[in-house]
Sequence to fold (322 residues):
Amino acid sequence: MLKDAELNSLPNGRHKDCKKHPHLYLHVRGGSKTWLMRYKIRGSSVIDLSLGSYPSISLKEARLEAARHNLDIAQGRCPKTRRDAETRRQEQESITFKDAAVPFVRKQIANYRNTKSQYRLAMYFDKYIYPAIGEMKLKDISIDDIYSLLDPVWEEKYPTAKRLQQGVKAVFDYSTARGFYDKRNPADISILKHGLSKVRHKEAPHPSLHHANTRSLYHQLCSVDCRTAYALRWTILSGSRTCEVLKAKWSEINHDLKLWEIPAENMKNGEAFAVPMTGEHFGILDSMEAFRKPGGRIFELSGVGMLQRLRKVECRSLIGLA
Fold:
C-alpha cells in the first residue's frame, strides 16, 4: 500500500497501491513519477493508462480517479478507449469550418493542373465562403447558414452560387469521411433546392473559330514575325490545347521520327501522346531557335499573350475550332 510519506523515496519501477485500488501504480523513472492504471479487458494484453504526474496529482486524487475507472473495468469497458473517444468528441466539437476546409482545398488545388482552376477554387473560399461560415463550428452550421451564404448570389450570380454550394458540400463530405462530422450534410442540394428559387440559366458556349476560317487565320499569322504568332500556328497545325503548346519543350521533339512527344503530365487525360510533325512545324522551330534556352520551353509565353495576338488579327477567342 502506497503512503504519502514514502512517495518521494521510492526506487525506480512500478509500485502497486492497495487491494482497494488493484490497478493503480506509481511509475518511478529517474526524477519523474507518473500515476498509471494497469489492467486487462477480456483477455487483452496489459493496457497502461496515464492519470498524470506526481505531485501534480496527489495520492488521494489518483485513488479517486482509479475508483472511477475501476467501475468501467469491472463492467468490461476500457477506460482508455472511453477517454480517447471523449477526447476525439471534444476535438470534433471545437473544429471550425475553416479548420476542415483548409486541408481539403489544399488537396484539391494540388490535384488541379490548370492554374486558373486553382485560383478560382481558392477565390470562392476566400471571398465568399470563409467570411460567411469560416469561423463557425462545423457542428453548429445549419441549413439556414447555407441559405445565408447562397441567397445573395443565387439569382444574380447563379454559376458562382452553384460552385459555392458544391464547395461547401464537398467540405462536409470530406469532414464526414475524416470523422469530423456525423450529421446530415446541410449543403446537400436535394434539401436546399426546396428553399431556393428556380433559376433558368444556360451556360453560353465560348465563341470559337469556324473551321472554314482556319486557313485565312493561318495565313494572317504567317505574315507576323513574333513568338505569339508562331505558337498559334503550332496550335493550329497540331490540333492541341493551348496548355500543351505552352508547356512544350525542345526535348520533346523527336527529329528522327518527326514527332512531338507530349508527356503524360502535360495531357488532360494523363496519357502520353505523339503529334506527327510537318515541314511547317520544323520551320517554326527554326524561327524559334533565336529564343532557345537550354532545357527550356519552345514558346516562353503565356496564354494571355496568345489571346492578345488573336485579337489583333480580329479573332475573338482561343478556345477552339468549331
Remarks:
- Strands lie at 13-16, 24-29, 32-39, 47-53, 253-254, 259-262, 273-276.
